[in-house]
Amino acid sequence: MGQLYPRTAQPATSPILALNPAKDRTAAWMKTANYALIATEMEDEGGLGAITAAAIEDALVEEDWPVNAVCGPESMLASNFGVSVRLVRQAFRILEIRGACRMRRGPSGGLVVQKPQRAEAARALASHMRWTGATPTEVWVARRLIEPMALRRAAINRRHMDLPLDTGRLPLGSLVGNPCFALALDSLEQFPGGLCETVTPLRPDLRAAVERGEEEEAARLALADLDAREADYFRIHGLDWPRQEPRQAVNGNDPHRNLATAVARRIGADVRHERCRDHDRLGSLPDLAQRYDASLAVMVEAVRILEDLGVVESRRGRGGGVVLSVPSPACIMRMVHGFLAAAGLDRLQCDDFTDTLNAAVIEQAATRGPGGHLRTLQSIADGMEQTPSRPSNLLLYLEMMRGIYDIVGNGVLHTLIRCIAGHKTRVYARDTRVSLRQDPTAELMRAGQMIIRGVLVGDPATARQGQDITAATCRRIQAEVMGAGNRRIVGSI
């Protein structure tokens, strides 16, 4: 009788990689105020195992994420990274949960590098959005921005590349071309009413527009298609989520983890934002094992999966056990980082996504007005004006953008931009050391003041002009750095 869950065959020629820490890469982002501001916490709050996992990921990025390479053995990696074998094993477990590696057992054990799958990263994003309180209205607003952008790019790619359409569905994923848009689109597909779940009478025309490479027509039909789906959804369900079998996120490429993954999904399906907010106690590990009809060993692994997603924490002592919590932005940023790095995402693709999304959100904020953020934005604008050339003022720009997203009040959009901006900051943080002919800080501060002025007076055109200045400034920096022959690109904020 064969194995119930046979392992995926690895190439016989998988190279042995003596993985060494990329200390300058890790040091450049882990303690920076920029990353902490985006993630709302410093990375070292995750514990030594999480820090070691992050250092290993940085080393894999330095090696261009060598899929199927074998890194190890454990003792060598422990020596290279200056930690104990126990911490290396803990880091392996974290990375295995995220689908970044598979542990190889035995005396010469180590890790086999894997490529995290977009489907799993998308499920992780959708689960995080649910657990942090995403509403149907927020999801439909996000779709209204993301779907036309993604389908426009799909039409452009269809015109210039010989890419096959996905069978039986609209051209998502690889046809979109940009991993950021593909991930955002697939994460929104996890919610009811998605493109692949609900087919409208407009769908044949939309497919035809994409196939012909007519990007403007594809974007127009995408909005019309969305209008029809949205009207049907709210007519049937109202403002609440329907009861359904949620497609909760659990990562990992090892089929032997299927049982723990399934249990983690069942637990996650029972979790609602209100319970996370109130830190409800799920029970002890034996209680949960009995409730979900699982062995204690499987339940321990399932809880570890949910801990890495940030939705539960284990407490000791009286009244302890497994307790729900609201996941922090840092949790989902860590979860999708491996997928984005392994997908070969470059800085121009990051900027394409962040510039497009930021421009739309800035215009929305200017239309709505500052509301309770008036004094905060005025204070940021004053700081930008008083010391426009101080490099640390880039933090003011990030604070301004966080305030802009808070005005719009869409947690789904804020989660998406945090993930891409955090990835960009993490991968390219050390590239800010590149010497430029002209410091861009003053120009960015001028753009920031223009954005704030547009928001304060309710002028979307002025606010958008400020964002256009930011994008143009960053394109100039990219051209300068690329012209100097640097492998990495310095891009936008």
Structural overview:
It is a single chain. The protein has a four-stranded mixed beta sheet with strand order 1-2-4-3, covered by helices on one side. A three-stranded antiparallel beta sheet has the order 5-7-6. Helix 17 (374-386) packs antiparallel against helix 18 (394-408). The protein has helices spanning 23-30, 33-39, 48-62, 74-81, 85-97, 118-131, 136-160, 179-188, 203-211, 215-237, 258-269, 273-277, 285-291, 296-308, 329-342, 347-368, 374-386, 394-408, 411-428, 441-457, 460-483, and strands spanning 16-17, 70-71, 101-104, 110-113, 281-283, 312-315, 321-324. The model is unreliable at 1-13, 245-256 and 484-493 (pLDDT under 50). It contains 21 helices and seven strands. The longest helix has 25 residues, at 136-160. With 493 residues, it is mainly α.
Report the total helices. 21
Output the radius of gyration: 23 Å
For the biggest sheet, the summary is: 4 strands, mixed
Helix content range of the residues, please?
A: 55-70%
Task: Give the neighbour order of strands across the main sheet.
Answer: 1-2-4-3
Give the low-confidence spans. 1-13, 245-256, 484-493
